Amino acid sequence: MKDKKFKVIIVEDIKLELKGTEEIFRHEIPNAEVIGTAMTENEFWTLMEVGVPDLVLLDLGLGGSTTIGVDICRNIFKRYPGVHVLIFTGEILNEKLWVDVLNAGADGIILKTGELLTKTDVQAVMDGKKLVFNYPILEKIVDRFKQSNNLLSVTQSARKLLLVMILMNMMNVFCVIWHWVIQKK
Fold this sequence. Notes:
Layout: E1 6-11, H1 15-28, E2 32-38, H2 41-50, E3 55-58, H3 66-79, E4 84-89, H4 95-103, E5 108-111, H5 119-126, E6 132-133, H6 135-184
Parallel strand pairs: 1-2, 1-3, 3-4, 4-5, 5-6
Helix pairs in contact: 3-4
C-alpha cells in the first residue's frame, strides 16, 4: 500500500496551523490529496457529505473545546468505519484526553510540539497500523512509565516496611501475652 494515493480532510481551527499543515501534505506527502479543510465541526460534517476521505487529520481542541475532537472521532467511526483518523493536537498535558480519543477509535496521535507531522507517520496509519505516535508523545509515555516504575518500587519498599511494622507489633503482642502468662504462674 506504500505511496498509494489517498484523500485527506484536515480539521484545524487555527488558520495559520491549517495552512502550514496543508503545505506539509503538499510538499512532504505527495501521495495525499487534500480534498478539504475545515475550521469547525459543522464545516467538517458538510465536507464529509460532499466526499468521504481515506484519512481525517483531526485537531482535538476545536473552538477551545477538547471534547469536540473526541466526539467527532467517535462519530466518524460510527458513520464511516473505513476512514482512518490521525489526531494532530497541541494538547500536551491532557493524557486522559489521549486515552479518550484512542478509545473513540483514533489510529494515532501526533503532538504539534517538536517533530511535526511526517510522511512516515501518515503512511503508517494508511497502512493500517494502530497506535501511531510521534516522538514527543512517545517521550511522554516513556516518562510516565518510568514514573510508574518509581512508584512501584516505592510501593514495594512501603510493603516491606509495613511487613516489618506488623511483625514488630506481633512481637509486642507476643511479649505482652508472654509477660501476662508468666505473671499468672
